[in-house]
Amino acid sequence: MIEVDNLHKSFGETHVLKGITTCFDQGKTNLIIGQSGSGKTVFLKCLLGLFEPEEGAIKYSGQEYAQLSRDERRDLRQDMGMVFQGSALFDSMTVEENVMFPMDMFTKTTRSEMQDRVDFVLKRVNLIDAHKKFPSEISGGMQKRVAIARAIVMNPTYLFCDEPNSGLDPKTAILIDNLIKEITEEYEITTVINTHDMNSVMEIGEKIIFLKNGYKEWEGTKHEIFKTDNQAVTDFVYSSELFKKVRQMYIEERN
Amino acid sequence: MKVKCEPILLFLRPKTIFAYMKYIGAIGKYFIMVWEVFKKPTKWSIMRSLILKEIDELIYGSMGIIIFIAFFIGGVVTIQTALNLTSPFLPKSLIGFATRQSVILEFAPTFTSIIMVGKVGSYITSSIGTMRVTEQIDALEVMGVNSLNYLVFPKIIAMFLFPFAVAIAMYVGVLGGWVAAVFGNYAPSGEFIKGLQMEFQPFHVTYAFIKTLVFAFIIATVPSYHGFYMRGGALEVGKASTTAFVWTSVVIIVANYVLTQLLLGQ
User: Fold this and answer.
1) Which helix (H) or strand (E) holds A162?
2) Do residue A50 and residue B135 have CB atoms under 8 angstroms apart?
3) Nearest CA in chain A to B132
4) Cβ of B135 and A104 within 8 Å?
5) CB atoms A78 and B135 under 8 Å
6) For FRET with A123, which of A29, A241, B247, B260 sits at 20 to 30 Å CA-CA?
7) Are A78 and B43 within 8 A, CB to CB?
8) Do the bridges between strand A2-11 and strand A63-64 make them parallel or antiparallel, or are there none, so unpaired?
9) What residue ranges do the domains of chain A occupy?
10) Top-confidence residue, B258 or A107
11) Alpha helices by DSSP H, A107-161
12) Using the 8-state DSSP alphabet, how is residue B10 labeled?
C-alpha cells in the first residue's frame, strides 16, 4: 500500500502538485487520470522518488520515503517496477538481456536460474520467440510487454506504469491492460497507472484519481465514475460522443 | 532617463552577473557529477563487460582516423619546416628534429585529442543524451542503479588507454614526416633520422603522456556531462553534441596551456 499525504511539488514559480492526499491499495489497479498538464507525470515521478517533493509525505507499506537512508531507498527501489511511456528498453541489449538486467545487477542467482526466470516472465507476457531480438526489431506492443516483463522480473511490491497504452492500437491496448490487471491480482502488487485512455478507466480502474491543475479533484471506482456529478470529471471522461452514450445507457439501465 | 555606464562596469550588470553565475553553477554541477561517478559502484561482472565494450568503441574504433591523421600531419610538418629552412648553413637534420619535437610535444597529444573530441565526444553526448530523452536513464535510476557510474565510469577507464593511441600517433606522425622528407626530396633519410635522435629528452614523452591522460579524462567526462543533464528531444541531443564539442575543446586548450606551463615552464 502507498499512502500520500499533502504532497506539494513546484518547479521554480510553477506550483505543479498542490496538496495531494490519497492512498493506493495493494492488489488493485489504481489509475491516475487527468488532462495534459494536470500533474500526473510529476505525481508519478514523485512516487518513484525521481522528484523530491517540497512538502508532504509518501509512505510505502508504512515506511516514509523521506525518512529512509540512501541504502534503504536503494533497497526500496528494487521493490519497484516501472513501465515507461516509451518502454525505455535498453537499445544495446536484446529482449532477454533487458529482462535479465535487474536480476543480473542486484542478485547473485546463477545464470541458469536467471534464464529460467526470464523465460517464465516472457512467457507470462506472451512473448515466446523474441528472446534474441533487439528492441528496434519488435513492435510497440511487444516492446510494452518486454517492459512489463522487466518490471515484474524481480517480483516487485509496487508496479508503476506511465501511459502503458500510448501509441498502441485498441486491441493491443486492451491486451496490455488485461495483462497488467492479471499480474496485479496474481502477485498482489500495488499498481499505479498513469493514463489518458478511457478504455483503461472502464476496463481496469479499480480505484481512480482524477487530477486537475495539480489538485485531486475526484476519487472513486470505475462504477462510481458513471454516477458522479462532478462536472470536471464528466467533462473529461465523457468528452467523446461514444462515452456519452455509454454513460446514458448505463444510467438508463440502472433506472 | 538613461544612465551612462563606464565600459568596465558593464561586467557588473545583473544580466552579465547572472550569466557568470550560470557558468559557475555548471562547473560546480560538473564536479558533483564526477564525484557521483565514483560512488556506489556497479557489480564488477557487469562493469567489466561495459569497460571492454567502451574500449572497443572509443579507442579501437578510433585508431583508423588517428593513424590516418597522424601520418599526414607528420608529413605536412616536415614539408613546412623544410620550406622554412632556406639557409644553406642550416643542416637538413633540423627538419627531423623539428618534426619530432612538433609531433611528440603537440600534434600527437593535443591534435589527436581534438580529433577524439569530435569523434568520441559527440558519440558520448549523443548516446547518453538519447538515453535521457528515451527515459532509459530514468529506468536505471528507478531500478536503483547509479546511472552515472554505470554510464560514465566505463568511459573514463576506457579513455585511460588513450595514451597508447597517442603513442601510435607519435610513431606514425614521425613516419609520415620521414616519408615526406625522403620521397619529397626535402632531406636525405640519414639526415632526417640523425635529426630525430638529436638532443632527445625522454621527459618530453612523459609530458605528452601526462597531458594525454588529463585530456582523456576531459574527453570522457565533459561530453558525458552535456549528455546526462540535457533536456528536450532529438533536436536538443544534436545541440548538446555541438555544445559538448565546443566546451571540451575549450577545456582541452586551456588545460594544455596550464599543463605546459606547469611541466615545461621556467
Assistant:
1) strand A158-162
2) no
3) A88
4) no
5) no
6) A29
7) no
8) unpaired
9) 1-79+158-169+180-255, 87-155
10) B258
11) 111-124, 140-152
12) G
Question: Does the pLDDT of residue A238 top 80, yes or no?
Answer: no
- Assigned domain for B20 exists: no
CB contact under 8 A, A84 and B141: no
For residue B42, list chain A residues with Cβ-Cβ distance below 8 A: 105
Q: How confident is the model at residue B167 (pLDDT cuts 50, 70, 90)?
A: very high
CATH number of the structural domain A1-79+158-169+180-255: 3.40.50.300
Model confidence at B173: pLDDT above 90: yes
- Strand ranges across the sheet with A55-60: A14-24, A2-11, A55-60, A63-64
Strands A190-194 and A14-24, bridge-based pairing: unpaired
Collect all residues from B whose CB is shorter than 8 A from any CB in A.
40, 42-43, 45-46, 130, 134-136, 138-139, 141-145
HSE (CB half, 13 Å, CA atoms) of A163? 15
User: What are the residues whose beta carbons fall under 8 Å from the beta carbon of A175, sequence distance 6 or more?
Assistant: A126, A141
User: Do A102 and B143 count as a contact with CB atoms less than 8 A apart?
Assistant: yes
How far apart (Å, rounded) are the C-alpha atoms in residues A161 and A216? Answer: 19
Domain count, chain B: 1
Cβ proximity of B136 and A98 under 8 Å: no
The per-residue pLDDT for range A62-93, each reduced to its tens digit, is 888 888 887 788 788 888 888 888 889 998 89
Residue B187's domain comprises 47-264
Min Cα distance B32 → chain A (Å) is 17
Q: How far is CA B17 from the centre of its chain?
A: 30
> What single DSSP character describes residue B199?
T
Cα B123 to the center of its chain, rounded Å: 14
